[in-house]
Design goal:
Blueprint: H1 3-9, H2 11-16, H3 25-34, H4 52-55, H5 58-77, H6 87-96, H7 101-129, H8 137-157, H9 164-177, H10 184-192, H11 199-232
Helix pairs in contact: 5-7, 6-7, 7-8, 8-11, 9-10
Length: about 240
């Protein structure tokens, strides 16, 4: 009997651990479904789907890089003001005067680049293996949405330094958005907030970059993971994504 088992059988342990021992698969399944946080997941997942050869952990890498972006981005937000009069100066201050500022900004930038590569590679891997086929068609669509959100995160963060490179890159990018059929003018107006890149554009890109798009990624990623767990139970042994 292990120390943990002894603790569970002690008076103190019994007062803390209320769940009964789950010895059989049926008992473990019952405990799984009775848990508020676990009931949305399947009781079992095919072993092959959590191995390295199945996905090369590209999805895991994308999620880790997204976490790195959130952590480093929160740190940078303490020293950045989205104002045309102050944005560029704040970036210079971060790189020269803020403790670990240049390191954190480099981590943020490289995490963004690597996340785009990891998500694109993950999509290519899924497509190559035919894992987008039944019963996972809808999860493939969710994955495409995540790829678009990842690209938008990278695009909206490009303007925040407010230097000449960022200014003209966003000018060209938003002008290209205006040529999208039917909705191009509306999309360009939403992004720019006027006819030219200005302080309104910087505020809009900042809000999109630090609030709207990260929240959309978290929500979509949660649905994506949930559907992956659920759909994996419907995958037959002879399916192409084995």
């Amino acid at each position: 009997m292990t120390i943990i088992d002894r603790f569970k059988k002690s008076t103190v342990g019994k007062s803390i651990v209320r769940n009964p021992d789950r010895k059989t698969p049926r008992d473990r399944a019952a405990g799984h479904w009775s848990n508020f946080f676990l009931h949305i997941y399947p009781v079992k997942v095919p072993k092959r789907e959590i191995g390295f050869r199945y996905s090369w952990y590209l999805g895991v890498a994308s999620a880790v890089l997204f976490g790195s972006l959130i952590a480093s981005g929160i740190y940078l937000m303490f020293f950045y003001v989205p104002s045309p009069a102050q944005a560029y100066t704040d970036i210079q201050t971060i790189q020269t005067d803020v403790a670990f500022g240049q390191y954190v900004r480099n981590v943020h930038r490289w995490s963004a680049h690597l996340m785009v590569i990891a998500v694109a590679a993950h999509m290519a891997r899924v497509f190559y293996r035919g894992a987008y086929k039944s019963p996972k068609e809808f999860n493939w669509v969710i994955g495409v949405v995540l790829l678009v959100l990842t690209l938008l995160l990278s695009f909206t963060g490009y303007l925040l330094p407010w230097d000449q490179l960022a200014y003209w890159a966003i000018t060209v990018g938003t002008s290209m958005a205006g040529y999208v059929p039917y909705i191009g003018d509306t999309v360009q107006e939403i992004l720019v907030g006027g006819t030219t890149v200005s302080s309104s554009t910087l505020i809009r890109f900042y809000v999109l970059h630090v609030a709207v798009l990260p929240a959309a990624v978290v929500l979509t990623l949660a649905v994506h993971l949930w559907r992956w767990r659920k759909d994996s139970m419907l995958t037959s042994e002879g399916s192409p994504d084995e």
